[in-house]
Amino acid sequence: MKKITIFIILFKLISTGLLGQITINQNDMPAAGDTLRYSLTVNPHQFDFTQTGENFQWDFSTLTHQAQGLEEYQLVSSINYLVALFIFGMDAIATSAIDDLPLDEFEIDVDGVYSVFSKSTAQYTLDGFFVMIDGNALPLNYSDADEIYSFPLNYADQDSTTFFGTTNLGDTLSLTKQGYRVNEADGWGNIITPYGEFDVLRLKSIIYESDSLFWQSLGDPFVLKRTTTRYSWLAKNEKIPILQVSYVAIEGSEDNPSVTIKYRDIYREPSDEPTGVDLVDDQKNDPVIYFSGNGNFLHIAYRNITGNIRIFDISGRLLAERRNIFLNNFQLNSSEFYPGIYIIQIQSENPETRDYNIKVIKP
Questions:
Q1: Which domains does the chain have, with CATH numbers?
Q2: What pTM did the predictor assign?
Q3: What is the 3-state secondary structure (H, E, C) of 90-106?
Q4: For residue range 223-282, what is the model confidence (pLDDT) as tens digits?
């Protein structure tokens, strides 16, 4: 009897260990018709997202949402039949990606921007983008697709991929996106977030990319280079990562990366607090920044300070700049900004006051 009991205990321990090391495959990826809710936050300071290992326990249960969104996946053919038939294929799926192309620099009025994905038993790829303008689809089809995941994905797997695509967005406007990605499944274990507790595989990705946007009237192209270090905790049947933390470093500002924290979630009531407040530290006179009016107004309160502000999106594109303004109670109309994370750079004219880079979320 003792031998049988010991055997059962050992069997359970071994089985538990094997089950903990999950394998991710194409069935764990989004499909047409999926609507997946997520939360965003910009309060990472109490967590170390780099820690990992075998049979690791990650506890991020105290993350607090500051905004929510939906990833809604649909067949490309249901958005534009011709771009599916002739460019991406009838099985390709798409989701809104309005912030992924650097179109703000040129004030292009678009009806929508979509990322296009496909999946097979071997991989899950980003195949490109398309822009809807006046009912017409302008595609950027990667001639070399970005392989986000290779399947089956197991602990300790490593891979790398390049990606490249170029397109014309009119007679005088063209866009080229290129780069490469390095993936390593560097941990497995259990994660706890406000969404729940899951067995996960942790993937570390480093993505080097360059966007080059050329407009004939400007002469030289606008080039944006950035490096993203991304940690993704993947679970079975959840379609998108349970948690994904991205550190984005723009060329020239590598020492000050922006951080995006996105996690799978259920619907939660909006916070009563102003959206995006990010007090930097415990100094007596820190700037307070927040959105109000459903994101239509950006407020900056920096007592008795005059200076300059610059507003960037999460990709590092400059959206607005104001110089030599009194920041005691500054307000900016932000109704044309898309929902998401923004970086507010404040430069005081007082040499004794330090500069700030503050992340805020527009709902």
A1: 18-264 (no CATH), 288-362 (2.60.40.3080)
A2: 0.77
A3: CCCEEEECCCCCCCHHH
A4: 888 899 999 999 999 999 999 999 888 887 777 777 889 999 999 876 544 444 443 443
